[in-house]
Write a structure and sequence with these properties.
Homodimer. By secondary structure, this protein is α/β, with parallel strands linked by helices. Helices cover 46% and strands 16% of the residues. It binds 1,6-di-O-phosphono-beta-D-fructofuranose.
Length: 547
């Protein structure tokens, strides 16, 4: 590996740890838990892992543990800090017993089923400390959900004498981790399963998991870029920049970046849905701000667009749900058709009247993107839908009409951007480096104590890292029943932006001022060395949520 000077300097950064994880750990059991909803159904499906108590770590005496082998998997989209979770598990295991071994399954959950692995030794782990990416073992989106996969994985674990697995993933992967934990516990397989909350999207959070790792770094990278664009916009004064931001469903990333950079517009999908806005309402809202700024001669601006917007516009949501069912049931027929035009016509005829009207009114490029392949979890791949371009075209068309009517006198030139992949593998901020290392260490303690069906949890994150509270939360506690592929399934409840939450309310207080006036903030790049108030700063979302 050829290392950059920053990578070399950063290798020796020692992540800051919560007090309870610095020495030996005592585990304190809290009260028994219930799932967030649908308790009876979840309890029935997870008889062995339901209702387990919350766990908190305190400094204490640790009993010596026998040597054991552990496996780790990185699942789903990359998120800054994954390598530190692994180094945290590795160091935690070695601290418990130097004979402990860590195996990394390659390419995500698929590696566990296909028995592709590498033993993670100090020689390997040391090169990846405090670096971004998941390239130490790779990641993948294979869904671990079939009994056949669980059995194959068990054979592979037995071969390597692995008695515990750590699955580092988002809500879907942790749901599957819990199903696997239940399955192994039910059959007395002797393999524990522990989850770790990962995703830049920030939508795996609840009372016990304050944020998923990677959100902090990704938002800081995007905010730096947005700030740079805003400075360019304010210098040249000739473009409106439409910036789509990653985050498959929730708008946490967009909202956080808005709080950091104060753009002229930030659309929040959850608000669009709550207000039952149509696509035309969204376009009108944007066009009105463009027109208002133009009256002052400000023919420039920035608009942040969440990646998942199309799925939150009620009519589009209905259309996408129908498309999901319809494409699942007619996959072969659709694939057999030659061109996109034929596919669109075939699909349009199978839709309800309302959805057909919406579908045929969409630009062809967007309709084609909506028909494209789902990911293995059945989700539309919203990062492939060019919403930012669609909105530029639609705003332009509306302003053209308003110009004729004398309602718009300015100029409008749109520049589309999509910030997604460039934020997912950045070198983790101090926050993510520390948080992930603590999560990894926490996982190793849960393993040593024989726990299964738990997610590593590190809380109190706006306090100094010394005061962070580490422990474990039963995954079943986060579950509810949701419809997936036409069937009700137990899944971890996705945390969307709460319109009654402090971050959104803060944004609403300011957004009209930011829309009309130019109040940009330029956050600059993530700082790894320097004053703590710059280097260790947390997201505004966490700051406002924990006030
Ligand atoms: P995870 O939920 O797996 O962390 O993935 C998040 C994400 O970055 C989304 O924001 C985005 O929609 C998606 O991954 C893109 O997926 P892919 O890497 O498969 O293109």
């Amino acid at each position: 590996m050829i290392k950059s000077p920053l990578q070399i300097a950063r290798e020796s950064y020692a992540p800051k740890m919560p007090k309870a994880l610095k020495g030996s750990v005592k585990i304190v059991e809290g009260k028994e838990t219930e799932s967030v909803a649908d308790q009876a159904d979840i309890k029935k499906m997870f008889p062995n892992t339901y209702g387990m108590p919350l766990l908190t770590f305190e400094p204490g005496e640790a009993a010596p543990t026998a040597a054991r082998n552990v496996g780790v998997i990185l699942s789903g989209g990359q998120a800054p800090g994954g390598h530190n979770v692994i180094s945290g598990i590795y160091d935690g295991l070695k601290k418990l017993n130097p004979e402990n071994k860590l195996y990394g399954f390659l390419g995500g959950p698929g590696g566990l089923v296909d028995n592709e692995y590498v033993e993670l030794t100090a020689d390997i782990v040391d090169h990846y400390r405090n670096t971004g990416g998941f390239d130490i073992i790779g990641s993948g989106r294979t869904k671990l959900e079939e009994e056949d996969q669980f059995e194959k994985a068990l054979v592979n674990c037995k071969d390597l004498n692995i008695t515990a697995l750590v699955i580092i993933g988002g809500d879907d992967s942790n749901t599957n981790a819990c199903v696997l934990a239940e399955y192994y516990k039910a059959k007395g397989a002797g393999v524990q399963v522990i989850g770790c909350p990962k995703t830049i999207d920030g939508d795996l959070k609840n009372e016990m998991v304050e944020t998923s790792f990677g959100f902090d770094t990704a938002c800081k990278v995007y905010s730096e870029l947005i700030g740079n664009i805003q400075r360019d916009a304010n210098s040249a004064k000739k473009y409106w920049h439409f910036i789509k931001l990653m985050g498959r469903s929730a708008s946490h990333i967009g909202l956080e970046c808005a709080l950091q950079t104060q753009p002229n517009i930030c659309i929040v999908s959850e608000e669009v849905e709550a207000k039952q806005m149509t696509l035309d309402d969204v376009v009108t809202y944007i066009a009105e701000i463009v027109a208002k700024r133009a009256e002052k001669g400000e023919n420039f601006g920035t608009a942040l667009i969440p990646e998942g917007l199309v799925e939150f516009i009620p009519a589009m949501k209905k259309l996408i749900a129908e498309l999901n069912d319809l494409l699942a049931h007619n996959e072969d027929k659709v694939n057999a058709l030659e061109g996109n035009k034929e596919k669109r016509e075939f699909v349009a005829d199978l839709l309800s009247a309302d959805s057909k009207e919406v579908f045929v009114s969409l630009p062809n490029s967007i309709a084609n993107q909506l028909m494209a392949d789902r990911d293995p979890h059945g989700n539309v791949q919203v990062s492939l839908i060019e919403t930012e371009k669609m909105l530029i075209d639609m705003v332009k068309a509306k302003l053209k009409v308003w110009k004729k009517e004398g309602k718009f006198k300015g100029k409008f030139k749109g520049q589309p951007h999509f910030f997604g992949y460039e934020g997912r593998c950045a070198a983790p901020s101090n926050f993510d480096a520390d948080y992930c290392y603590a999560l990894g260490n926490t996982a190793s303690v849960l393993i040593a104590d024989g726990k299964t069906g738990y997610m590593a949890s590190v809380r109190n994150l706006t306090a100094s890292s010394d005061e962070w509270i580490a422990g474990g939360v039963p995954v079943t506690m986060m579950m509810n029943m949701e419809k997936r592929h036409g069937e009700m399934k137990p899944v971890i409840q996705k945390a969307l932006v709460r319109l009654d939450g402090a971050p959104f309310k803060k944004f609403v207080e300011k957004r009209d001022d930011w829309a009309e006036n130019t109040k940009y903030v330029y956050p600059g790049p993530i700082q790894y060395f320097g004053p703590s108030e710059v280097c260790d700063i947390t997201t505004k979302t966490l700051q406002y949520e924990q006030k």
